[in-house]
Write a structure and sequence with these properties.
This protein is about 55% helix and about 5% strand. The chain contains 13 helices and three strands, in the order H-H-H-H-H-H-H-E-E-E-H-H-H-H-H-H. Helix 10 crosses helix 13. It is globular and about 60 Å long. The termini are far apart.
C-alpha cells in the first residue's frame, strides 16, 4: 500500500514527536490495516464517522481485545489530528466515534523471592559457547537495572555509558516523547553494571552490547529476559514490563507514596500509576485472609 499522507505522518511522528520504533511500526500497521479493510478505498478525505463505526464493529465481531482496538484507533485518531492541525483539514470524523472502555486488568507481579531467584541466574547458570565471555555479567546488569529502576524496555536499550552516574547513584532515562528523568539506582544494580563494563571493556557509547559489540536491540533484551524465565521454571511468563510492574508494586508495598512512584516510572498521569495501588490492596487482602483467624 503506497500512501503519501501516511508516509508523511509517520515521518512527522519519527522526527518531531520522536516516537519509538515500536510505536511507528504499530501505527503504520494500524493505518495499513484500515486502508486494506476499507475496499474500495475512497481517500482519507472522504471517510465519515460511519466508516469508522463499521470498522469498529467489524473488529468487535472478530473478538479483538479492547486494548488492541484502542491501539488501532489511537493510530487513526493521531493521524486525523495531524491532518486537521498540520494539513488544514476541516473535519475529523473520529471525534464522533465512541470506543469501548479500557479493560482494567491488574498487572502481573512477581514476589520478592521470585525476583531474587531471577536475579541470581545469570551468574550461576552454565554459559554456552555461543555467548560472549562477558554475557553473564551483561545479563545480570540488565535484570538488576530493570528491577532497580523500573524503566521501560525501550529506555534500557537506549542507555549510554554516560547516562549512569555512579557518584550520585542515578541513571538518566529518556522516556516517552524524549522526556528526561533521573532515576535512583540501587547499589546491587550499580555493582552489576560495573562488573559488566569491566569484563566487556565498555567505556563509552551504548551501554549494553550484543556479541558483535553493537547496541543490543529490543529483541535482544527480550531474548535475554526470556532465556532466564525459561531457566527459572516460574509459572508467570516473565517480560521486562512485568519487572517494571514488580518494581512499582514492591515500592508501594513497602511504604512509597504514589506521587514518587509516578515520577520514577515516568508516567504523565497519576491515574496510570494508581493501578498499582489495586495490586497492593489485593495483596493486603490476601495477607489478611491468610493470617486473621476470623477472616
Amino acid at each position: 500500500m503506497a500512501d503519501k499522507l501516511v508516509d508523511e505522518f509517520l515521518e512527522f511522528m519519527e522526527v518531531e514527536r520522536r516516537s519509538s520504533e515500536r510505536t511507528l511500526a504499530n501505527y503504520g500497521l494500524a493505518l495499513r490495516q484500515f486502508h486494506e479493510w476499507r475496499t474500495p478505498f475512497k481517500g482519507w478525505e472522504n471517510l465519515t464517522a460511519d466508516d469508522f463505526r463499521a470498522f469498529l464493529y467489524d473488529l468487535m465481531k472478530q473478538e479483538r481485545g479492547r486494548a488492541t482496538i484502542r491501539l488501532q484507533f489511537a493510530a487513526l485518531r493521531s493521524f486525523f489530528r495531524w491532518l486537521t492541525r498540520r494539513r488544514g483539514w476541516k473535519t475529523n470524523p473520529l471525534l464522533e466515534v465512541q470506543l469501548p472502555k479500557r479493560e482494567k486488568k491488574l498487572p502481573v507481579v512477581l514476589t520478592v523471592a521470585q525476583i531474587e531467584q531471577m536475579l541470581s541466574l545469570p551468574l550461576t547458570m552454565e554459559k554456552t559457547k555461543r555467548d560472549a565471555v562477558w554475557a553473564p555479567e551483561r545479563d545480570a546488569a540488565i535484570l538488576e537495572l530493570f528491577y532497580s529502576t523500573g524503566m521501560r524496555l525501550s529506555e534500557l536499550v537506549s542507555l549510554n555509558v554516560e547516562d549512569i552516574d555512579t557518584y550520585t547513584e542515578t541513571v538518566r532515562v529518556f522516556g516517552k516523547g524524549s522526556k528526561e528523568r533521573l532515576c535512583p539506582v540501587g547499589s546491587a544494580a550499580l555493582e552489576a553494571v560495573q562488573r559488566y563494563r569491566a569484563k566487556a571493556g565498555v567505556h563509552d557509547g551504548a551501554l549494553f552490547l550484543s556479541k558483535l559489540r553493537k547496541r543490543l536491540s529490543i529483541q535482544g533484551v527480550d531474548d535475554v529476559v526470556n532465556k532466564y524465565w525459561r531457566a527459572s521454571g516460574l509459572p508467570i511468563h516473565l517480560t521486562p514490563h512485568k519487572l517494571r510492574h514488580s518494581f512499582a508494586t514492591h515500592l508501594l508495598n513497602n511504604g512509597a507514596d504514589l506521587r514518587s512512584v509516578q515520577e520514577l516510572l515516568g508516567h504523565a498521569s497519576l491515574s496510570t500509576t494508581q493501578i498499582y495501588t489495586h495490586v497492593s490492596t489485593q495483596r493486603m487482602k490476601e495477607v489478611y485472609e491468610a493470617a486473621h483467624p476470623r477472616a
